Structure formats: structure tokens, C-alpha cells
Amino acid sequence: MGECSYLRLTDEDMGRNGAERIEWAWRKMPVLQQVRDEWERTQPLSGVKIAACLHISAKTANLARVLKAGGAEVVLCASNPLSTQDDIAAALNVVYGIPTFARRGVDHETYYHQINATLDTGPDLTIDDGADLVTTLHRERPEQARRVIGGSEETTTGVVRLRSMARDGALYYPVVAVNDAMTKHLFDNRYGTGQSSLDGILRATNYLIAGSVFVVVGYGWCGRGIAARARGLGARVIVVEVDPFKALEAVMDGHEVTNMKEAAGKADFIVTATGDVHAVGREHIPYLKDGVILSNAGHFNVEIDIPALEEQARSRRLVKKDVEEFTMQDGRRVYLLAEGRLVNLACGEGHPVEVMDMSFANQALSAAWLITQQGKLSPGVYRVPREIDERVARLKLAAYGIEIEELTAEQKEYLASWQAGT
């Protein structure tokens, strides 16, 4: 599968430490546990090669272990230069025998070298988070891409990219949009991003959220979660939106809504979660309040216009781990967290284990489903089959010890009819 020692991740002590963290996370992943128990018997992925480009965390390691338990040959690389936890990568390589090409803080060239090393294994399936693996495969290895059975995509940004590829006729195989599953975006994006983004900001700054003005740019599922958690910690939340429906929803959720220039002058904290470029752009920088903390919860580090920030600053320096200070010409100081990359992963450990249990169960079950659909699906982006999504929800409820009601035959008949009325 390839030699990983050039990434300096064969340290056995580091690997043992990572394994302890992986096992700790496993305790709170009951849905994946049930999938593993079934797959150890049925081996639905026997002989299937899977290349996964994901954030290398303890939760991801447990997904990889489940895929391997189901018979797959798994190889991993990182989906973000700052999201790799090196002890987890070491554990995957040394303890669990799952080749992992990843190291925290790599440069652009090394990042794509790792992706290509993963693709060198000739995968039958791809699992992606942000679509860098898929786009590299299609741009640089089109003939190899045409031989892939299928893939899945974890996050909103990646699904947007894949749908653009499909519209342009540039996607060569079917991909399941795991992000669109109800048991993914309703929980992972909202509760996961909400908690983990605040966690990352607090770890990086140790500043008080209560009483602060906290600006959330973008009110999709991720933005909703961040706003709710900031408000829960006592912040005055301001939402910036371009979508009138989402803006109206933010108002009715009790938040102030305004434009970016107005919000910039009030903000103590700004978090972007739009999936688009320059949500905090060149034109907004002169309005930023002295001492503002800028961070990003979107997949790529393009939501804050960092080149414009550099141009308008008279100096910059790293004041503490993951916190860079830009001093503007007029003396204002602007602080950027984690180089504008995913604050929850670069400054913290990412989403809570319990939500990733559901997201990664969708990934695992979608991989097995794609194998059963080989030759039946044309290239394109597909939803997670409802039966998989519902199964994940029911398994999670069962893990919580919760029983829900069932419709009676009479109720089903009523809902299927039109004759009954007032």
C-alpha cells in the first residue's frame, strides 16, 4: 500500500497514544459498532479498495476500522492541511495497519502528494470530504477515474463541487451525497459544527463569549448551529446572510440581522460558514473593530480574504498558537485563527463523537450500497437511500434506549386517503 515513514508517523509511542484516543471515541459510536458487528460476519466489502480523503481524527479512524472489518482494503489521506491529528495518523499506520498519508501542517505540494499517493493504490471506491480527492482524480487521472465504481462525499462544499462537475459532464462515476442525509446535516452540521466551532475558538483564545458581539456569516445548518451555541453562551448574536428566507429565519430565531459592513464594526468575534469566497472581503476590512477575532467554519480557507488582510496590514505576527495578529495602518489589530482554515479542527478536535457516529455510519453503509449498485448507476450525484438514512436514525435511537410510536393500520390508511374530511 505504500511506505508512510517519510511522513514521520511510525513512532510507536505516538501510535499507542493515538490508539487510546481512538478507543475512547469508539465507546460513543454505537451505530458504527452495530455495523461492524454485522459486517464482520457478512463481509460486504470483501476485496474492495477504498481511498478516503477525510479529516484524520479519532472518529475517522473508527470509520476506517469498520470498513476494514467489512473486508475492504482502506487507505487514507487528509482533506485539510491543518486537520490531521498526528497521533491518530501514527496509530492508523502502526497499530491498525491502515496506510495513512497525512501529517499536520503540510504545505500545498505535500498535501497533493499525499492525495496522489492514496490514488496510486487504485481504489474501487472513494470517500471524500471537500472533493479534493475526486477533483484531483478527474483532472489528473481521467482514465483511472472512469474505472472507479462510485464514491461518497461528506460535506456541503464537496457536494456543491460535485454537482457542478455533474452539470458540466465532468463527473465520471456516481457519488452519494452523504451530506444531504437527514441523519448527517440535521445533526453533524448543526450540533456538530455549532459545538466544535465554539470549542475551537475557546481553545485558541480563552476569551469570554458571554457579553460579546458574535457575528455568524451564513445561516445554513452550520451557521444555525454556531449561532445557537454562541447565544447559549451568552453572546449577542448578529447574522449576516444573502438569502432572504434564511435571513428571515434568523430574525425569527431571535438574532439581529444586518450586512457585513455594519456587523464588522460591532463584532468581537466573526465566524464564516458560507461555503463561498470572501464572505469577509477586502471592502469589509476597513470596518473591522479593533481586537476582532476572525475565524472560519467553512471547508476551505477562502471565506476570509486573507491576501487583502495582508495587503492592508502594516505588520503581522503569531502571538500564540493558532492566533495571528494583523496590525492595520491605523493601529487596529485584527486576529485570525488557524490561518483561516476550519477552526473546529485546526484549533480543536472536530465534531463530537456522537454526531460523527451517524455521519460515518452513512458513509460506511453508502459504500456497501454502491457495491450492490455497480453497473446500475450512471455518473451523477445521488442521495443516500432513505432506508439507509432511516436505519441510522433507528439505530441511534435504540442506542439511546428510546422507543418511538408506530402508525396503526388505520392511521396509515387515513394518511393515504383523500375521502375523509370535515
In a few lines, what is going on in this structure?
The protein is α/β, with parallel strands linked by helices. It is 45% helix and 16% strand.
Notes on the structure:
By secondary structure, this protein is an alpha/beta fold. The protein has two domains: about 5-185 and about 350-400, Adenosylhomocysteinase-like (Rossmann fold); about 190-345, 3-Layer(aba) Sandwich (Rossmann fold), CATH 3.40.50. The protein has helices at about 10-25, 30-40, 60-70, 85-95, 110-120, 130-140, 140-145, 155-165, 180-205, 220-230, 245-250, 260-265, 305-310, 345, 355-370, 385-400, 410-415, and strands spanning about 50-55, 75-80, 100, 125-130, 150-155, 175, 215, 235-240, 255, 270, 295, 315-320, 325-330, 335, 380-385. The strands form two sheets. It has an eight-stranded mixed sheet with strand order 9-8-7-10-11-14-13-12. Strand 7, helix 10 and strand 8 form a beta-alpha-beta unit. Helix 3 runs parallel beside helix 15. The model is unreliable at about 1-10 (pLDDT under 50). It holds the Pfam family AdoHcyase_NAD.
Which spans of ≥5 residues are poorly predicted at pLDDT below 50? 1-9
Number of individual domains: 2
Helix content: 40-55%
> What would you call the structural class?
alpha/beta
Helix and strand topology:
Blueprint: H1 12-26, H2 30-42, E1 49-54, H3 58-69, E2 73-78, H4 86-94, E3 100-101, H5 108-119, E4 125-128, H6 132-140, H7 142-145, E5 150-153, H8 156-167, E6 174-177, H9 182-205, E7 213-217, H10 221-232, E8 236-240, H11 244-252, E9 256-257, H12 260-264, E10 269-272, E11 293-296, H13 306-312, E12 313-320, E13 323-328, E14 333-337, H14 343-346, H15 353-372, E15 380-383, H16 386-399, H17 409-415
Parallel strand pairs: 1-2, 1-4, 2-3, 4-5, 5-6, 6-15, 7-8, 7-10, 8-9, 10-11, 11-14
Antiparallel strand pairs: 12-13, 13-14
Helix pairs in contact: 1-3, 1-4, 2-3, 2-15, 3-15, 5-6, 9-10, 9-15, 15-16
